[in-house]
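step: validate -> pass
step: tokenize input -> pass
step: predict -> running
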Amino acid sequence: MARGSVKARPMQDGTVRYRIKWESRGPDGKRRYHSATRATKKEAEAFLSSKLQEVNEGTFVIASKETVAQYLERWLEASAPGWSEATCMQYGAIVRARIVPHLGALPLSRLDALTIQTAYATLTAAGYAPESIRVTHTVLHAALGRAVAWRLLPHNPADGVTPPSIPVAAPAAWSATEAAAFLTHRPADRFAPLWRLGLDSGMRLGELLALGWRDVDLARGVVSVRRTLTRTAAPGQGSWKIGEIAKTASSRRSIVIGPTTVAALRSHRARQAERKLAAGAAWLDMGLVFDRGDGHWLAPCVPRRAFERAVAASGVSPLTPHGMRHTMATLLLTAGVHPKIVQERLGHRSIQMTLDRYSHVTMTMQEDAAASLDALLGGEARPRRGQDAS
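step: predict -> pass
step: emit ->
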């Protein structure tokens, strides 16, 4: 149990002040001594009681003298070993561009919820989208949470902050008819195998571009996602590289692909082998499934532009390459595939994340389930969604 004392201290003007002393132990286990003064004995005893309670409960902290900017740089440096290179770049950019300009000069110990909320309002006025501010809040909340764990703050001031809400919209996706029309419009397209695998597997574009033949088992029809293409610098300031790990731990996954996709990949590998033979010593053997023509990895902008042209040529609804991922998930859920399977194919960290992202589809599934259950319980037969009632 922590100990402390209150002693009267006569002042030169004849008044009495009450000096409070108490002790605590730092994160290193060393004993530390603290003091304060109050005008009355009652105030001093109440103050001492509150401090001793904090010490005994493990919530007592010594006010940090460093600024928010100084702390955030320390947090980034200390946390970096557990993050992917892409996460380090993203978090560093958010801290330096959105947080430090508005909060960086404040002492960490004086940061409060109102100040953070005001900073978010300033970002909104500057034209930042609600989603960008919510990501900023996620980063700041995580950083301040570590400050609490490291006993630099008694509580997380971001807990009382409300970031702007984001209107929930269904992710853009193709219907089965549109997806099939897109795939069959230009089957000889150089990127046709990439589009087919993207729609079949739901892999992110970075995962597709980092995919190696060692990750593809065509005999079993299984693709293993182990890594992704990641930035080596902030957007517009650098290049890309193939990371050694996937986007997140849950992103490491194995995906079963269909026979048509397997056949497309077999043909693609044969054509790639011909290109490799023709290139000779100029071939950069990185073992990639999709390369830029000489074995080297593709910059994402290349397939993105090619996808945009292919979409326009096929006459289907506008979509981004990431929309292939949403299409896969939407089609499977609509077909009645269990959301757990869809979660595993997407590499989401939880099934709740999948259900929240595709709530518009699961609501339709609930309506169909309700109709089926009603019929089983003897209700009047009604047509399911999409069926003609006549």
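step: describe -> Residues 259-279 form the longest helix (21 residues).
step: cleanup -> pass
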